[in-house]
Amino acid sequence: MNNRKKKIIRWSALAMGLVLLTSCTANFCSPEDKAHLMFTYDPGLTRMVLEDNTEIAVLNDHVQKLVNDAKNKGYVTPSMDFWERIDEETFKLAFPKYKEAHPDKTQGMSLENPETITPDVKYKSFKEFGFYKFLGVKDSTTVGYGSELMANWKIWVHQLGLELGIENVPDKDFNNFYEKSMMTIANQKRSCITLHEGEYGTGTSKSLVSAKSWKYAWQKGLIEGLLVYPVAALVEVLTIAFGAGGWGQVGAILLTTLIVRGILVLATLKTTIGTQKMSALQPELAKLQQKYPNSDTNKYEKQALAQAQMALYKKHKINPMGSILMLIVQFPVFIAVWGAMNGSAILTSDSVLGLDLSAQLGATMTKNFFSAGWWTAVVLFLIMGISQFISSRLSTWINKKRTKKEVVRLGKNPAAEKQQSQSKMMMNVMFIMIIVMSWTLPAAMGIYWLAGALISIAQTLIVDAIMNRKKKKA
Predict the structure, then answer these.
(1) Which of 21-25, 145-149, 151-155 shows the lowest mean pLDDT across its residues?
(2) What is the residue extent of each domain of the chain?
(3) What pTM did the predictor assign?
(4) Which of 3, 104, 407, 468 has the CB geometry, 3.0–4.6 Å to 286, for a possible disulfide?
């Protein structure tokens, strides 16, 4: 394997590591939150009245698609009797909870006398507590109210197999397929940080999310309690203050990003100034590298170059490790803000210019072509990509402009060119990874990345202008 391939693998591994780290904050979604989402995808049978006033029960679109896919795979699918009985068993779990929550509305009603339960109460019981269909007691042989996903479902499949006969219940393959599909839906949900219980999301992804306390956040971890929850709470408070509706979320993302970046700049001001001083010294560093052209292969020149660089840093009172220290401070904050934005429930609600804030940019751009939401997604993706590219390259362009006039006549330097090539490769790999990640991100996260890139560009230009002014005065 040649050196170029090794470098590509090395930088790719680094980029993938960063991608994994951005998802290392804990998922705030409780089993109840996930069960609610699963119930929106399979809320039971839908009753339809035909033209002759005949009522029939049909599967909803999502479950019907699962059944059709299972048939194509050759699995044995359950009969309508099975789905009817699942609904009955779900109601038996839901009604006691509804009666407990609304005693005034259910006075005189009981499961022992089904005729006493009105259709309205039955519907509301199912809607409010039907999520227990997917939430039971772990390792139990009887259905109940617990925190284990799919526990009750598994018990019912076994019991109904004995009652209805094996020909009416799903076979093992279909059951595994159904459970896996529902668990995939549940585990995809991460946006569960909210101060107020309510339904969040849009379309079929809209489901009830319970309020989360700061104490709950600390139980999730140090970063979650110290940074993730406060940032998510700030986003929600600002969104409500701005009026939500889509543009409120956009305003909250922009202001939160600005506040966090401002705090980081103040916290790392000394280090930031040192980093900018190092950038201003690029012409002098380039001259030193020209003085030792074989430092990448000659140990003597490598040592001499290192000593000369350290002397230059000492002269200008610069800590060469400052940039690394700044990254150590900033990186946990970056991860925390990412986790907060990705976990904020309120950012998954509403839309802007036809684009749902919870919709994935890539998925939106590959369907409903030329619709309002499609155009918004395309423009957001392009602007975000361009701003990320400029943000990642701006410092390099500025430094290149500084050094060009002073070192261009001194000839090429293999060591300097090697270092520049490695830096350029790293930037390219990181930029590609950002674009790939952006394709799968919710639109709200795309706005966050755009805001961060624009702030980074502004910060670089402002600091560069200040450094140039000081240089001219000197």
Answers:
(1) 21-25
(2) 3-29+200-473, 31-188
(3) 0.79
(4) 407
